[in-house]
Amino acid sequence: MAFEIRAEGVDVELLMREIRAAIEEKKKAGLITDEEIREVATRPLPPVLQPHDLKSGLLAELLERPSRWNYAFDPDTLFRSSRSGSGRALEWVRRVLRPVQKLFWNPTPMIAALSRQGDLNTTYAHVLHNLVLEVTRLNLEIVDLKSRTLQLQGRLEFQARREKTLEAMALGRTVPGGEDGAA
Amino acid sequence: MSPAGGPRRVHQLLAALAYGDAISNEALAIQRHLRGAGLESDIFAEHVHPRMTTRARPLWEYREVSAPDTVCLFHFSIGSAAARLAFHAPDRLVSIYHNITPAEWFLGFHPHLAGLCYHGRRELAAFAPRTELALGDSEYNRRELEAAGYARTGVLPIVLDLDSYRRPPSPVARRLYEDGRTNILFVGRIIPNKKIDDLITAFALYQRLFDRQSRLLLVGDYRGHEKYYDRLQELARARGAEEVVFTGQVDDDELRAAYASADLFLCLSEHEGFCVPLLEAMAFGVPVVAYDAGAVRETLRGGGVLLREKPTAVVAGLVRRLLTDDGLRGRVLETQERAMAEVRTTDFRALLLDRLAPVLDGAPG
């Protein structure tokens, strides 16, 4: 039994059956469904996420394996080969021919730009991470402030009602034949 | 009466003497009865509410009365200067325990308070060897004291000033609440262990199924617990509950108006060390429905309706039944009258002196 009443002449079991029957009637009338009752009973109040408690693992994750999203670029990167055995020979040929190649174009500015871009990518990851964190924090604060505004609105309405009651009572005392006159 | 040769000075130490707070009222009642029994008794508090400044002395003056033959009644509180003073003073220490809410209740909403409560329970255990006698205000609290390692324990129930309930309620608040709506009342701080969320959910269902013209009146301070309060407001909106009124902390006359206007008192709290509002509701003749948690059962003393579980639909149906079935309501009120008769006949002074007898009669233990 869901409850107990220590009073004489109260049949708790019968009372419980009647209560359940009353709820069944409401269900038949379409006021509520079993699913809604279950949902109401099982949904807990979610805990509050405090903006200052917010922590992100994004940056740590990015820095852990930078090769997945960034590249490292140094002056030799352009002349390296991805092949293992024959690659070493190819790299040697490229090194030997580098002065000749420089007669046709200057790769140094490109090497410097790509290397700089790699560093910038890391910086952007930091900036992006911090932005995401700040935006999320601000979002939580906005939710808080919205909630606070609604509360204040509620309190204001309650105070306005209180004020009207007070006015009605004061008028009742002073206006002869008023709603709540001295009679 | 304290025997000749026993301690003549029994002072109280509190973290805060507040206005309208059950513990502060109890401290004042204890002082009145101790003085009535011919003992010297003052209240020393770390924080004193502006309205109570004539009733208490500042904590730092305690050293003027502190002595090995002074009995110090310390109302246990977490992390206060009063606790440190009580622990280190040479006085004979009697701890009065009003319970500490388990930390887990505050984890999602107030991590700082959760930490304080966690350390508070450790502090409670640390006080055990220093304390000569420990009194809980319910058997439930006494058992917690025993579990914390206190050797000599007892129960000293919270005393109610029933005469004060006869004073007139605030006419404005009464007029405000008595507008034809059914008032379902809860009185208590708006904190997670009181399960105000369950109250709102049950009320929303009651309103939807049975009575659109109803109001849930939540009387209690929510300062310091704004996050939980925010969530509750959201919940009320999400559940479509109208007229969920959070009054905040109210004056005594407004509290009396709330009880006087209430059609039913509903408590779904899951942790209570005593729960004074249950007795107050019974004193005002308001039918009580309360969930059986902590000390609720012993505070009700067989009065009201005690919920063993709280399926929302059943709670809503039961509330409806109590509000519409005069016969059932009358029989429930009879059980409450019997319980209140027990409370009224309790001689608090005799009980207090009996509980303190081991300290007042004997030499330091």
Helix content class of chain A: 55-70%
Tally of individual helices of chain A: 5
The computed structural class of chain B is alpha/beta
**Biggest β-sheet of chain B: count, sense, barrel?**
7 strands, parallel
**Helix share, percent of chain B:** 40-55%
If you had to describe this structure to a student in words, what would you say it looks like?
The complex is a heterodimer of chains A (183) and B (365). With 183 residues, chain A is an all-alpha fold. Chain A is 66% helix and 2% strand. Chain A is elongated and about 110 Å long. Chain A has helices at 12-28, 34-42, 58-64, 85-104, 108-174, and one strand at residues 3-5. Chain B is built from 13 helices and 13 strands. The two termini of chain B are 20 Å apart. Chain B is of the alpha/beta class. In chain B, the strands form two sheets. A seven-stranded parallel beta sheet of chain B has the order 3-2-1-4-5-6-7, with helices on both faces. In chain B, strands 10-9-8-11-12-13 form a six-stranded parallel beta sheet, with helices on both faces. Classes of the chains: A mainly alpha (183), B alpha/beta (365). Chains A and B meet through strand 1, helix 1, helix 2 and helix 5 of A and helix 5, helix 6, helix 7, strand 10 and strand 13 of B. Strand 1 of chain A pairs antiparallel with strand 13 of chain B.
Question: Any chance you could write out the topology, listing elements then pairs?
Answer:
The complex is a heterodimer of chains A (183) and B (365).
Chain A: E1 3-5, H1 12-28, H2 34-42, H3 58-64, H4 85-104, H5 108-174
Helix pairs in contact in A: 3-5
Chain B: E1 10-17, H1 22-36, E2 43-48, E3 57-58, E4 71-75, H2 81-88, E5 92-97, H3 111-127, E6 133-136, H4 139-147, E7 153-155, H5 171-177, E8 182-187, H6 196-209, E9 214-219, H7 226-238, E10 244-248, H8 252-261, E11 264-267, H9 276-283, E12 288-291, H10 296-300, E13 305-307, H11 312-324, H12 326-345, H13 348-361
Parallel strand pairs in B: 1-2, 1-4, 2-3, 4-5, 5-6, 6-7, 8-9, 8-11, 9-10, 11-12, 12-13
Helix pairs in contact in B: 1-13, 5-8, 6-11
